[in-house]
Every structure is written in structure tokens, then in C-alpha cells.
Specification:
Its EC number is 2.7.13.3. The protein has 13 helices and 5 strands. By secondary structure, it is α+β, with helices and mostly antiparallel strands.
């Protein structure tokens, strides 16, 4: 009996998975070593698209890329030329001019291509439409229109070259193409960037040189004429556009400067008025302080509670005076100096009129000193000061702007309002620059004073060619 052969159970015999277990550890070690070597190796240099590559070929590549970007990056669509003109016919003029060009060039192009170059009517019509109609688009999107028109012009050049009737006629550009292209350059120069204009000129030159090399026998030099006219047109229109933009920026800056100057004048006038009113308020606060401090001596039989109340009133008044002095330091600029003299009022109106007469202006003041004194006694101090400053500034304006003119001052109280009117006639002497010591800023100061007192101001030309300033200030 033959014994059946049994499988060996020796450890050296391959069992399922034993070979994989035997080769896995060495494989892991090799992979770990390769990974370490890979990590230690330096990374290859990365080429940045934003930086020009080294070498002449890199510079050429970057130049071509910039060239292509210039041709495919139109300016933002905008309004047509003269869109900001004040009159309607000026705003419609660019559309009318371009429409006239299209209406004239379209049928002329078809006729010339069919009769002179013996081109089929369908092809002639398609080329004429593509070469002329996009001029209407060029009013707002000139680079888009150039893409279409230039492609149509080049296609027309190839179509004429393939035809049998080019000899002795204009090629590669027909006269209609040159006229339409120059108009397109005008609209391009008024809208696109300098980089785009240079790219358009270079492409135009390249197309002309290509056709010249394609057939010098057929070429009559029309590409040189179109290149020169297009280049001159781009330069002139771009220069005009730069000049217009510079003038617009200058006008805008002048407007901003004028607004800032007016705002600064207003703030300075408000600060000056606040400094003057400080003296008025400080006087009243001082009176309150003195009355509160002396009440216990002037009024007998005051209870301790009342005396303490008067003491607190005096203390609050003194603290308010201190805060007002701090406020005054903030309002007074470094050049301003503290005023030592009392604030003027309407009682000094005759002195002001005499000073104006010495400056060469005849002043009529019907109100006498007694009437002025009686009037001032009824006025609050702030109203009195504001009225005097308004008259003073109005007379200063007469001296500056109407030399030799006569002036009249009317002052009175009516319906609970102080009414001040200063009227002057036309100037009798030529205007000249005078050195004056005006205390305000003309009508700005007058309006601010009237506004702060709750009144109104009416200033404007008079019927006889002079000027009239009328202020109404409520007494309460």
C-alpha cells in the first residue's frame, strides 16, 4: 500500500501570507528612506507670472503677453462724447455725425466693391456692413467696434487679393476703409488707455506690412497712408483727452478748495462770534456771583438754609466762569489776542459813521445820539453787539466794493424786532484794492450773527445799482 504524500509542516515552508510578512519590514524601511531623501531635496524654482522671466526670450514673452492684454482689455463702457453737454443738440451731435458717416460709407463701399472690384453683391454687402455699422457701437465701446472693423478690413484685403480685378486699384485698403478707420481712431483716442492705443497702432502697422510683403505688385501704399493718419489721429485725440481730464481735475480741485475755504471762513466767524459773546455772558455770570455772595449782607434776617442756597448759587456761577474761560482758550487761535476793550454797541454808531466818512464814503445816519441811547437801553447786550457788527461789516463792504458811493443807515424797533438797514448807491470811483481792517468775513459773518440771534437777513442788489443789507433781530 502506497503511503499518501502529506504536506510538510516545516517552518520554512511557505504558508498563506508568510512571504508578504517576510518582505513588508524591508519594504517599509526603503520607503521611509526614500521619503526622507525626497523631503531633503530642494524644491524646484517656481516661475511667477507676475514677474518677468530672465533672459531675452522671457522679456519677449512678457511683452507679447502685455500686448495681448492691451488688445483684449477695453475701457469700461461709458457715455458717448459730449454726453455732459448742457444742450440737447450738443449731446446728440456725436450720434448724428457717426450716423452720417455710416449712411455715406455703407452704400459707397458696396458700389465700389461690386463695380470696380467685381465682387459679388452678397460678399460686398457683408463686408460693407461689418466695416461701417460698428462705428455706431464705437461711440460707447470703441475697442469692441475695432475688433469687428479691423477683422472685416483684413478679410476684405484677402478677398480683394483673391479677386482678378485688383491691378491698378487701391489695395489692401480702399478709400472708404481709410475714412472709416480714421473716424474709429478718433473715438478710440477719446476713450481707451495709452497702452491700448499703442497696441492698436502696432497691429495696424503689422497688417499693412504683411499685405505689402504678400504682394508688392498689387500694393499701392494705401497702408502707409492709413497708418500715418491713424497714428496722428490717436496722438491728437489722446492729447486732447489728457488736457480735458487735467482741466476737469483742476476745476474739481478748485471747487473743493473753494468749499473748504468757505467752511473755514464760517468756522472762523463762528469762533469769533463765540469769543465776543463770551464777554457778554461772563458779565452776566459775574453779576450773578456778586449778587449771590452779597445777599446775606444786603438782605437781613436770612435763614441759614437760604444763605447756604445763595452760597451754592455763587459757587456754581464761579465754576461756570472758569469753564467759560477754558472754552475761550479753545476758541482763540494762536495768533488771536485777547480783547482788552469793552465790546462795542449801537451807541458807538456815530463814531463808526465818522470813520467811514473819512474813508471816502458819505454816510447818512438819521438817528441822533439821544435816540440811540434810548434804543440801546431796550436791547439785550447780544442783540446790541450783533447789530453793531452787522452795520460795521456792511459799511466795510461799501468801502471795498463801492468806493465813492453814498450809504444810509436806518435803525429802529418795530413789532418786537430790531430792524437794521444799510443801503448804498453805485460806485462812483474805479474799484481798487484797499488795505482795510475788517473784523468779519462779509455776508458770512452777518448771516451767522443773525442766525445765532434767531433773526433773518436780506442782502442783495438795490434798484439803483447799489446794494442793500436788511437785518431783523428779535429782542427776546
Amino acid at each position: 500500500m502506497n503511503d499518501t504524500q502529506q504536506p510538510s509542516t516545516d517552518e520554512t515552508t511557505d504558508q498563506p501570507g508568510s512571504r508578504a510578512r517576510r518582505w513588508l519590514p524591508p519594504l517599509r524601511q526603503r520607503l521611509a528612506g526614500a521619503r526622507a531623501v525626497f523631503r531633503a531635496a530642494p524644491e524646484p524654482d517656481r516661475v511667477s507670472l507676475d514677474k518677468p522671466a530672465d533672459g531675452p526670450w522671457g522679456a519677449v514673452r512678457d511683452g507679447l503677453r502685455e500686448f495681448g492684454v492691451a488688445l483684449i482689455s477695453p475701457a469700461a463702457p461709458g457715455r458717448a462724447p459730449l454726453a455732459d453737454a448742457p444742450k440737447l443738440w450738443l449731446r446728440a451731435a456725436p450720434y448724428a455725425v457717426v450716423f452720417v458717416f455710416v449712411a455715406a460709407l455703407l452704400p459707397t463701399t458696396v458700389t465700389v466693391l461690386v463695380q470696380d472690384y467685381k465682387m459679388s453683391g452678397g460678399m460686398a454687402g457683408g463686408l460693407a456692413v461689418a466695416q461701417t455699422v460698428p462705428l455706431l457701437l464705437a461711440l460707447t465701446r470703441p475697442l469692441h467696434a475695432w475688433w469687428v472693423i479691423f477683422a472685416a478690413d483684413v478679410a476684405g484685403g484677402f478677398a480683394l487679393y483673391a479677386g482678378p480685378h485688383v491691378d491698378g486699384r487701391s489695395w489692401p485698403w480702399t478709400p472708404m476703409i481709410i475714412v472709416g478707420y480714421v473716424l474709429l481712431m478718433v473715438l478710440l483716442g477719446l476713450r481707451e488707455s495709452r497702452r491700448t492705443l499703442i497696441a492698436v497702432a502696432l497691429v495696424t502697422a503689422a497688417a499693412g506690412v504683411f499685405f505689402e510683403q504678400l504682394s508688392q505688385e498689387y500694393s499701392d501704399g494705401s497702408w502707409v497712408l492709413m497708418l500715418v493718419l491713424a497714428g496722428v489721429t490717436l496722438v491728437v485725440t489722446y492729447a486732447l483727452r489728457l488736457r480735458g481730464e487735467a482741466q476737469a481735475k483742476l476745476a474739481e480741485q478748485e471747487t473743493i478748495s473753494e468749499a473748504e475755504r468757505a467752511q473755514r471762513t464760517l468756522l472762523e466767524e463762528r469762533a469769533r462770534i463765540a469769543r465776543e459773546l463770551h464777554d457778554v455772558v461772563a458779565h452776566h455770570m459775574s453779576v450773578i456771583t456778586v449778587q449771590a455772595d452779597t445777599a446775606k449782607y444786603r438782605l437781613p434776617d436770612l435763614s441759614p438754609e437760604v444763605q447756604q442756597e445763595f452760597g451754592e448759587i455763587a459757587s456754581a456761577a464761579r465754576e461756570s466762569l472758569t469753564e467759560m474761560r477754558r472754552l475761550l482758550k479753545v476758541l482763540r487761535n494762536e495768533e488771536a489776542q485777547a480783547e482788552r476793550t469793552p465790546q462795542p454797541g449801537l451807541k458807538r454808531l456815530h463814531q463808526l459813521a465818522d470813520a467811514t466818512r473819512r474813508a471816502g464814503v458819505e454816510v447818512d445816519l438819521p438817528v441822533g445820539d439821544g435816540q440811540l441811547a434810548e434804543l440801546v437801553a431796550r436791547l439785550p447786550q447780544t442783540v446790541d453787539l450783533s447789530a453793531y457788527r452787522i452795520v460795521q461789516e456792511a459799511l466795510s463792504n461799501v468801502i471795498r466794493h463801492a468806493p465813492g458811493a453814498s450809504a444810509r443807515i436806518d435803525v429802529g424797533v418795530e413789532d418786537g424786532e430790531l430792524r437794521v438797514t444799510v443801503t448804498n448807491g453805485p460806485a462812483r470811483k474805479p474799484l481798487s484794492v484797499l488795505e482795510t481792517s475788517g473784523t468779519g468775513h462779509g455776508l458770512v459773518g452777518m448771516r451767522e450773527r443773525v442766525r445765532l440771534t434767531g433773526g433773518s437777513l436780506d442782502a442783495g442788489p438795490a434798484g439803483d445799482g447799489g446794494f442793500r443789507v436788511a437785518a431783523r433781530i428779535p429782542l427776546n
